[in-house]
TrEMBL record, chain A:
This is ABC transporter permease. SUPFAM superfamilies: MetI-like. Residues 1-20 are annotated as: Disordered. Its main location: membrane. The chain crosses the membrane at residues 45-67, 212-234, 240-258, 265-282, 294-315, 346-366, 395-418. It is found in: Cell membrane. It is a multi-pass membrane protein. Residues 208-414 form the ABC transmembrane type-1 domain. CDD domains: TM_PBP2. It comes from the Bacteria. Pfam families: BPD_transp_1 (PF00528). Belongs to the binding-protein-dependent transport system permease family. CysTW subfamily. It comes from Mesorhizobium onobrychidis.
From TrEMBL, chain B:
This is ABC transporter permease. It comes from the Bacteria. It comes from Mesorhizobium onobrychidis. It is found in: Cell inner membrane; Cell membrane. Belongs to the binding-protein-dependent transport system permease family. PROSITE patterns: ABC_TM1. Gene3D superfamilies: MetI-like. SUPFAM superfamilies: MetI-like. Pfam families: BPD_transp_1.
Amino acid sequence: MSALEPTKLDRPRASRDWSAADSGTARSVAAALRRADLGDRLRSLALAAPLLVLLALSFGIPIVLLLSRAVYDPTIADALPQTSQALAGWNGTGLPDDAAFLALAADLRSNQAKGTAYELAKSLNARLPGARSQVLKTVRQLEAADRPPLEVMKAVPFWSAPGTWPVIESGTHSVTSFYLLSALDLRWNADGGIERVPPEQAIFLQVFMRTFFVAAAVTLATLILGFPLAYLIASVPKGLAAILIVAVLLPFWTSILVRTAAWTVLLQKFGLVNDLLLWLGVADDRLDLMYSRIGLIIAMTHIQLPFTLLPIYSVMRTIQPSQMKAAYSLGAKPFTAFRRVYLPQVFPGVMAGCLLTFIICLGYYITPALIGGASDQLISNFIASYVNVELNWEMAAALSFILLVFTLALFGIFARILGLDRLKLV
Amino acid sequence: MLLSPYPTTGERIRITLLWLWCGMVILFLLVPILIPVPLSFNSGAFFIFPLEGISTRWYEVVLGTHRWQAAIGNSLIVAFGTTLIATILGTLTAIALSDEKFPGRRIVMPLLLSPLIVPVVITAVGSYLFYARVGLASTYAGIILAHTALASPFVVVTVGASLTGFDRNLMRAAAISGAKPITSFFRVMLPLILPGVLSGAAFAFVTSFDEVVVVQFLASANQRTMPLEMFIGLREKLSPAITAAATLMMALSIVLLVVANLLARRGKQRPRID
């Protein structure tokens, strides 16, 4: 190295000037490269921009908007401007002063005049069950106006009940944790702590538990059914393996709706499954498999089986059969060899398949809606019904928020342990 | 096969049990998707074997009545619209992402895939909330936009895979030979990655054609697609027409996905030209 290094002595003077010129050129070349590089970067960004913008508009904004509804609900604050002002100085305990009652009466009347009283009643009712009828009743009495407003307000016991005013006060803040807490069957108590809601109002934890239970049962069933088949496909000769793989891929390529439809046909009281059970003598009488938990789990297992099997198979394919032979030749019993040599290597595939199926199961909607009974509806079905039936967007948003947190957390584990490239789409 | 040259009794039993179990699992996998096919040709109105007779009356219902015809038409409009947008934009994005100079690939890729991860009900409800505000609910454009979000990840991934076998030096060679970027794209790159693009298009088409949850929230009575008509039919009353519709949908999906997978494989296997 040192022999090749030009020394000061043998470097001609002229070359010094060259090197000075060189470094100038080098700088400008570097700058030009940087410019070109920036240009390339911007060009590739511009190529991706249309899809990114489209996704932001068609997917990003809708999701953010929906989730924001879980914590942002200005309906009550907007409907009760005077009450909000009157409650600004209230310490939150006991009953507020008469000015607050008067302000509320004025707000209720102005809502009635604007035609928004029902909207307000519904919003209050979402936070305080039973409020709807009380609001509408009070509005009617205020309209009759044969008594002073304060007297009307005091005559309705609801407005002097202990729980009412804290709810109104919390409603005057547009940002609220109410719905998120409700989605977990929690609420703020009078002392500012968080407590469980009374058992008769608690519904959501049960729904989440049910969703997890169904997801876990389906995951387990797909593993029990899929693992041996994956093993078989990975160990038979190529031609036979190709035929067996088609048996897995054909249902995989059929849409969830079509497969659910097929199962509704099969699970009927006089359907094929019942015929088979009777013929085998497993059941004495025809079972009600439609609108049942067991029917739901059977159909979901059928739909999810390829999702569990394919990642396991793709790992099993890479394991050399000679390893097991080596274990046998070293004196291992078949089960020991399987447990100590084979299983640890297959484990990542098993994890990938099971996690994938579990995550997908958490979001199931179509199959429970069509095959599950009323007590088999999963969290997605509740979200849909809060939008379609109850028109309670805030509650739908809060449930979506929680479901999304679970999904993303599990997906984060998936990506961290196994890497995103395990998520093969094709 | 699977048996060692000198199998022990225990090994024979294990292999037999494995085959029996796997045979049952394969029946479990295949029977449910095959059952609607013969039932759809039943001349009777019940889902019972043996069939009362062979007839195509339920196909005539699906292909001949206005309700189903409109649904098939809507499905085709939405699926073609989605395929067109998702394929063009997804291909451009895949090309951008295959460039190692693309900034923030680690952030962009998960964002692009997120429509597949987010539970579809959340996507549907969110779209309904936002699209209603901007006047896109109950429009074909709205449904196509929402479907594009669900379909584009498939295009980005399949075209991206076919681009890993594409030699970027070919584009430099074209540029040196004086070709404009747009010319070298159409004359050099596109022909080489075409299997991947067509495969992505087929995936996009099937994704949109089979989708029901988003449509359920965004479509008015005028935009009901075939899956939505099936979903409503399954909820209200079970008619054998549904088995005919299911058979048609299944045939279309399977044919397209077989083609898509063959194309995707061909796209990836293309040798590098060095």
